[in-house]
Amino acid sequence: MINSQYHYLLTTLDIETFDLEDFKYNGVNLTAFRIIDNEDAFVRHQLLDMLGHGVLNNSRSLVIKAQDAMMFDAVNLLARGLQGLAGNGTIDTYPLSCDRVQSWKDGSSLFNYINAIKGRGLTGHMMLTDGKRTQFKLDVLALYEKGLLKVGEYNSTTGISLNFSEIADGTVRDKNITLRITTIDERESKRRDGKPFLKITTIDV
What we know:
Elements: E1 7-10, H1 21-24, E2 29-34, H2 41-52, H3 66-86, H4 107-116, E3 118-121, E4 124-129, E5 132-133, E6 137-144, E7 147-155, E8 159-162, E9 182-190, E10 196-204
Helix pairs in contact: 3-4
């Protein structure tokens, strides 16, 4: 199953942390996503700082797992939100019980401060709308004999842009096979009495 007849689409966001030596030289089609752009100047600066303090698990390269980078950005957002909240007065804290329906009186204000933050992080542009991340970007990577190379981008606003035919050094990838898979989701079928009874998903290769 490791040859040009197979195409793997990996949903992990940190494919560069995996060993892909067994896949590189067999012509296998392997596509993956990356949320951490190691070529970005801001990201490289942050990772070099982590490397200098011995924070990164891999002491020889600027590679960090996606969940660690997301935690880094989340703590940064929380810290900046608390800083903004503290700038408008004293933050009152008191114990909250897990057994009662009780909320922190400054919770909604902190939520609004965090939503208002816009900036850079290890996972790219950080912007929240109603607590959900928006306007983010993912790099699309493909595996070649030279390793993983960027072949496109996915933007949550503008969609996906791909260029599999040519890579950075002008090499044309013409021997691999690209499979297009169409999924048709039939929401529901109805009996004669009008009540739904079956949901069907059809995949055509």
